[in-house]
Fold this protein.
Amino acid sequence: MNSKGTVVGQQTADDVKVNGANLAGDTHFAGSLQQQTMTVNYIDKVTNKPVLTATTGIKANVGDTVGIDGLTDAKASNILGAPTHLASDINQTGNIYVETDGKTYKLVSADSLTVSGDSSKNVLNLYFQAQETTTIKYQKYASGSYSDLNGQTLQGVSLKNTDKTGFNADAIDYSDITLSVPGYTTYYIVNGTSTYTLPKNFDASVNTITVVFQANKQTVKTQVTGLPDLSKYATTKSTLTTSNTYETDSKYSITDAAKVQVPGYDLVVTDEAGNVVKNFSDLIVPTTGKTYTYTYTARTDTTAKVYFTYIDMDTGLVKPIDKDAVGLERVNGH
């Protein structure tokens, strides 16, 4: 070894490959820089705790900058391939995964290292992110209680619980998750705590996210028109002038038209769109309010039969008059 730390020796196999075997008169020599050992640590990037036991005794040239291919500075003079003996799988994008203690980790970054003559300073840290699974569930909250929506349809939307898998601190993709349904307000239960904000990233503490659809209150009104402002109609008008609130998709009823018929009037019940209503019970509350109008129309074809009578002065009895016999057409102007 010379004073600059270069080891000079016999021609090596590498030199033979590059320059060919020495011939008489050749002055090719093989040399290498002084080497030192280094330690590689495998660290959870989020918790900063070890993922695996450190690897020691790796040789590297003093003065070289050591890095991991694809993860550290490409200008490093000594690029190490990713430690494939740790990888349980290498996917098509070249990501390196480690499985330990039943958990999967992905290699995401590494510190570069300039090797020194002091082996205690030669530490290369590799950082991993743990793979996390978050379960997305759907529930409905109505009438003061929760009900499971897995495999069911709500307002025409099919809902099914699903698992999301990603690496710690990576963003959770909600693009395929139903987060709103007409007639309902959405909130979330994250690990038992209610919130209106979804977690942005995967985290070891985020195991379950429940998407809760809370039924909104809808107003159902009934109103009446066409009846004169007379006291004998007051009860009917009062019965048919209502405003009640119900939760979306719950059942309700309105007054049956058969129970509020008025002599001399025809009754038609319509909704706000002008549709004639025939069913008055077990109706389903829509996603918006509902208004029903009870319309009374006086019959124009009503006829009355007129009887002509007189009082028999001898007996005091009321007797019919033979209109045709006496030629009577009008009595007292009628």
About this structure: The longest helix spans residues 13-19. The helical segments are 13-19, 234-239, 323-326. The radius of gyration is 45 Å.
